[in-house]
């Protein structure tokens, strides 16, 4: 493995590869901070330009965009409570309260440190464990995917411990939103109310921009407060980076969780970040700090989503099964260059594949260096008056929502979800469970029906498969653990 | 009943209505297509009803918003709900450039910010950057609106 890595570094450390990675990192960082304009748009746009490039440069540039956008999406989560990427939604919980306390630079430092660790450890683990992990991933059937979705949904219990009934209601609503559009089981259109745009379903971008960005902007208009309530910035970004390593258990646990979820196609980094946050909150001896600016609340989702994005490359490059949209686009780029994912890729093109892995590690370091340089500038946004910030972000958010599908209907959806999100928060309903329900709804329903068909309609034999039962047991344990903790707190 | 609970009750009833509708539609659907919606909607509606009953009986704490109260609250809430809605309608009618220009110039003023040159500079910078990012770099079309499209068509016809 060491020889392969050395080969990879010798290929990736060429000036031309470094230049393409730098371009990809800068571009990714830029699209990552604009809500709605994600790495998928940027990668899809750049794919035609990669026709004439050598395959490694093309892959490294595209992967750098994905990695940098994934990391920088958390900057706006921390500074403005507006996730630049859906994967950064869980970072809002504790990142934004830190900004409100004037500790935006520390929070970004924590995010950079955890992202860097997650990405590097994720890549190393992927390199070391590719073969055994592949065997595990291959053993997953629809029944296990259904159980995995249930495990993801059980996170709601942990995240809404203070208002569990309201949390479950919102999760059910999120699941219901995932039913809108063409039914994945029989192909019928459901809950579209005759609206053509609803037949393709409700996208994650208008929902997240509405629930997080628009409802936050509404909040700014109402209160007219700066993000930083203390009116100044305290702490430094380096302090945040150093603090990341004061929580080694949270860092390692979340990274491992991200890798586990990343290698499982179809689940994705969004679920990984929420699950990691929930596990850390539940495992903490002082869970009441979560949501108030706890450093682990930033470290856990960031380490998990970055390691999940790296790990999603395993099924993409070896089985040709994309773990998410960005790895699907990487597969497209591979195919354009006449390469086929699979074991042959590892044996016939070792310089390409190991150069790619080494390049991703260099790209993570490059992003961290750039993040450190630019944090002071970014953090100043928390000192800008709400009267100025609200219109600017309203315009940028709406342009981002429109740009993704080029339809105004999504803008109206974002407005609707913004108003709904604002009212929900006012009346004590947490909005994050709704996003979790929407993300996992299709996976849960489709895999349940597929699993049931495979099991010949016998629910018992479907749910009692060892993998399925284990994952469902873990979900049950997570809920029981939370209920027990809540009861214990009430007695105390 | 305490009048402060009414908005919370109305919101809870709205959730119950949505979840109940999903459950009913799921039950009416043919075959397995309605199974998941019926189960999820039914379970959600049951919890929403429980929650609503608790709130109506005063067993659940009345929700406390962070918004100001009184006449100022009505103005602020109207503004906060009205601004995004009006902006979206203006996007549809007048297009991105005119609607965004109007929001960027008028909203800070309405919110009490009184430095016209700063407003003008930030508004112009936001529009220029939007053009650079979305139109020039990503080659995307931002909405021209009904009026913009009509004008474009008439120019093309000439």
TrEMBL record, chain A:
- Domain of life of the native organism: Bacteria
User: Domain named DUF112: which ranges?
Assistant: 18-436
Q: Which UniProt keywords apply?
A: Membrane, Transmembrane, Transmembrane helix
Please name one Pfam family that this protein belongs to.
TctA
The answer, when asked if Ubl conjugation is one of the entry's keywords, is no
Query: Where do transmembrane segments lie in this chain?
Result: 20-47, 59-80, 106-130, 142-159, 165-186, 198-222, 256-279, 316-340, 352-375, 382-402, 408-424, 431-448, 468-487
Q: Which InterPro entries match?
A: DUF112_TM (IPR002823)
Record keywords: Transmembrane helix included?
yes
**PANTHER family membership:** TRICARBOXYLIC TRANSPORT PROTEIN
State what protein this is by name. Answer: Tripartite tricarboxylate transporter permease
Which species is the source of this protein? Falsiroseomonas selenitidurans
Biological classification of the source: Bacteria, Pseudomonadati, Pseudomonadota, Alphaproteobacteria, Acetobacterales
From TrEMBL, chain B:
Domain called DUF1468: residue spans: 10-143
Keyword list, A-Z: Membrane, Transmembrane, Transmembrane helix
TM ranges: 34-52, 86-111, 117-138
Question: What protein name is recorded for this chain?
Answer: DUF1468 domain-containing protein
What is the originating organism of this protein?
Falsiroseomonas selenitidurans
């Amino acid at each position: 493995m060491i020889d392969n890595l050395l080969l990879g570094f010798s290929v990736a450390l060429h000036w031309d590869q470094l230049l393409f990675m730098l371009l990809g990192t800068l571009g990714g960082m830029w699209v990552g901070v604009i809500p709605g304009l994600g790495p998928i748009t940027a990668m899809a746009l750049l794919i035609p330009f990669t026709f004439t490039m050598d395959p490694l440069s093309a892959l490294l540039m595209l992967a750098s965009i994905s990695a940098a956008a994934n990391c920088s999406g958390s900057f706006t989560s921390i500074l403005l409570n507006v996730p630049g990427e859906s994967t950064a939604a869980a970072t809002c919980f504790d990142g934004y309260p830190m900004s409100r306390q004037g500790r935006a630079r520390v929070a970004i430092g924590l995010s950079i440190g955890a992202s860097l660790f997650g990405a590097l450890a994720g890549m190393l683990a992927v390199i070391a464990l590719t073969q055994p992990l592949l065997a595990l991933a291959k053993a997953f059937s629809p029944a296990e995917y259904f159980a995995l979705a249930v495990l993801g949904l059980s996170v709601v219990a942990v995240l809404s411990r203070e208002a569990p009934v309201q949390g479950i209601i919102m999760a059910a609503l999120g699941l219901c939103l995932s039913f809108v559009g063409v039914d994945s089981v029989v192909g019928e259109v459901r809950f579209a109310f005759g609206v053509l745009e609803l037949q393709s379903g409700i996208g994650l971008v208008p929902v997240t921009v509405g629930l997080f960005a628009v409802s936050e902007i509404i909040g700014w208009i109402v209160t007219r407060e700066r993000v930083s309530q203390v009116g100044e910035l305290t702490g430094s970004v380096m302090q945040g980076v150093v603090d990341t390593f004061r929580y080694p258990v949270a860092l390692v646990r979340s990274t491992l969780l991200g890798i586990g979820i990343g290698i499982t196609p179809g689940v994705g980094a969004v679920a990984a970040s929420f699950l990691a946050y929930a596990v850390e909150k539940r495992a903490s001896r002082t869970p009441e700090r979560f949501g108030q600016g706890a450093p682990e609340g930033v470290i856990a989702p960031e380490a998990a989503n970055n390691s999940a994005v790296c790990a999603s490359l395993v099924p993409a490059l070896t089985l040709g099964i994309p773990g998410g949209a960005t790895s699907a686009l990487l597969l497209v780029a591979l195919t354009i260059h006449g390469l086929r994912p699979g074991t042959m890729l590892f044996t016939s093109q070792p310089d390409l594949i190991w150069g790619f892995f080494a390049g991703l590690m260099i790209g993570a370091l490059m992003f961290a260096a750039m993040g450190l340089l630019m944090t002071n500038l970014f953090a100043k946004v928390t000192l800008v008056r709400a009267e100025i910030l609200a219109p600017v972000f309203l315009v940028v958010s709406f342009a981002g929502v429109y740009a993704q599908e080029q339809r105004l209907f999504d803008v109206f959806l974002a407005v609707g979800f913004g108003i709904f999100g604002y009212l929900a928060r006012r009346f004590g309903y947490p909005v994050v469970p709704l996003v979790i329900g929407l993300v996992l709804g299709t996976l849960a329903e489709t895999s349940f029906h597929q699993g049931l068909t495979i099991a010949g309609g016998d629910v018992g034999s479907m749910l009692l498969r060892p993998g399925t039962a284990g994952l469902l047991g873990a979900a049950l344990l997570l809920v029981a653990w939370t209920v027990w903790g809540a009861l214990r707190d009430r007695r105390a | 009943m305490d009048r402060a609970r009414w908005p919370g009750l109305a919101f809870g009833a709205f959730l119950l209505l949505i979840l109940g509708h999903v459950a009913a539609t799921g039950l009416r659907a043919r075959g397995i297509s309605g199974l998941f919606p019926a189960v999820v909607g039914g379970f959600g509606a049951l919890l929403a009803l429980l929650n609503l009953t608790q709130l109506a009986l005063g067993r659940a704490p009345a929700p406390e918003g962070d918004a100001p109260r009184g006449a100022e609250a009505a103005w602020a809430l109207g503004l906060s709900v009205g601004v995004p809605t009006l902006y979206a309608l203006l996007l549809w009618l007048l297009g991105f450039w005119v609607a965004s220009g109007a929001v960027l110039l008028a909203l800070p003023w309405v919110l009490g910010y009184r430095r016209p040159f700063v407003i003008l500079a930030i508004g112009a910078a936001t529009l220029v950057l939007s053009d650079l990012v979305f139109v020039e770099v990503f080659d995307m079309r931002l909405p021209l609106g009904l009026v913009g499209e009509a004008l474009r068509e008439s120019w093309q016809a000439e």
